[in-house]
Amino acid sequence: MNNKLTGPGRIFAYKQCALISILVLLCSLLLYVFLGKTTAISALVGGAIGVLPNILFAYKAFKYAGAKSSKKVVESFFSGVKLKMALTAFLFALAFKFLVIVPLPFFAMFCLVMAMPLVTPFVIKHES
């Protein structure tokens, strides 16, 4: 994990996750002010279900870099994707089992978090 080639990608991924987390918190706060506690909690949980697996993926995916470790790069990406999918499914199951969810803000925030990686490269400067 000391590979200097992974640094810029890892930093960019963490900045992306931080920006998305801030957006989730701000949207949840606005929903709390205008629509109430249950709606805000639903949005916050939906956002968290999207953000937490992304952080885990960023950690796993950017462990290796370079031509000598190309097989490890592919393996770390695949294991990161598998863990991300499993954690997402697990968090959805926990949310549906133990929380009272308002569906629209919950799924809207989850979808927003899933779409944000398409927009954040225009907001965050990628340093290489």
Q: What would your notes on this structure say?
A:
With 128 residues, this protein is mainly α. The protein has helices spanning 7-35, 37-61, 70-98, 103-123. Helix 1 runs antiparallel to helix 4 (103-123) and helix 2 (37-61) crosses helix 4. The longest helix is centred in the first third of the chain and has 29 residues, at 7-35. It is flat. It comes from Colwellia asteriadis. It is found in: Cell membrane.
State the gist of this model.
The protein is mostly helical and 128 residues long. The chain is 81% helix and 0% strand.
Secondary-structure map with pairings?
Elements: H1 7-35, H2 37-61, H3 70-98, H4 103-123
Helix pairs in contact: 1-2, 1-4, 2-3, 2-4
InterPro entries: ATP_synth_I (IPR005598)
Organism: Colwellia asteriadis
Subcellular location: Cell membrane
- The count of DSSP E runs of length 2 or more, i.e. the number of strands, is 0
| Sequence of secondary-structure elements | HHHH
What is the mean pLDDT? 87
Q: Distance N terminus to C terminus?
A: 17 Å
